[in-house]
Amino acid sequence: MIRFATIDDVDDIMSFINTHWKAGHILATNKDFFLYELQNVDDPNQINMAIVRDDATNELLGIDGIYYYGKRLEGRDTSGCMWKVIKSDNPVLGIDLFQFVMDNTRTRCIVGVGLGRMAIPIHKYLKFEVDVMTHWYRLNPNIKDFKIALVTNPKIPQSSLLSQAKFVRFPHFENLNKVFDFEAYYESKSRPTKEDWYIKRRYFDHPIYTYEVFGIELNGAIKTICVFRIESKNNAKALRFVDLIGEFDHIYYATQAIDELLFECNAEYVDFYEHGLDISKMENAGWLLTKPSGNIIPNYFYPFVQENIDIYYGIQENSYKVFKADGDQDRPN
Q: What is the DSSP secondary-structure string of 287-307?
């Protein structure tokens, strides 16, 4: 039977993750973090995950996690995480589980980021657009000895666009809430739409990661939110640009502000996974595509892998904008 999970299912789900997903995974070993990620914020008895159990044995056969970007009953957007089924008498159990989520979450928009090998053909079968996220980067010109990136091409293009935008740092959600017009953002055509409570919980209240949240101030107003996180390895740092919310076009005019943050952090580079931005405008803004450059800009830090990594996404409409922190791609593992 397929149904939504409750608090009573959590121990079985964690055991399932440890056995069938990855032994020692944080969601299999850290119950507090599991609940932070997937417990329903309005009903603690509910877990934001669909599960399927064997009718005869009650064995857990599959899981499909859900991240809600909104709490409104109509029009809320979601992304998926940890979609996994094991072998059973039903050869299409994974599709049935995913379809149950789509049919029963009142979801206007669902995105999948970080699709695995088995999820890609299923998303295509369900008429999702599937492709690889675009991976951008900018190097720090002050760094000569790279310990995280592998740099054979040190090119750092200058932006041909006016970089008149500046960053305003928001150490607390209350600072952001005073100057960012969430209601205007909700009325925009941005998909997925991330509501204020989600941004607060996801970035300001995260129990493990520390995020840096900035507003892009352009023409005297802040209509765009940028989220960064610093990774450290080999006594060096990398600046990860993980989410962009609001007026996406404003990022093209913020190259100087991003460079200043890069210098402040003394990071080797800033990188940015996305789908939906204008490639020519990103290039004009001074960003470089990772693979054509010949450089290696790592994505995996735990464990560290000095390779360029493709992240696959699945979306229902090409107009959706997706970034690395959507779904579970910027989650401790």
A: -EEHHHHT-B----BTTB--S
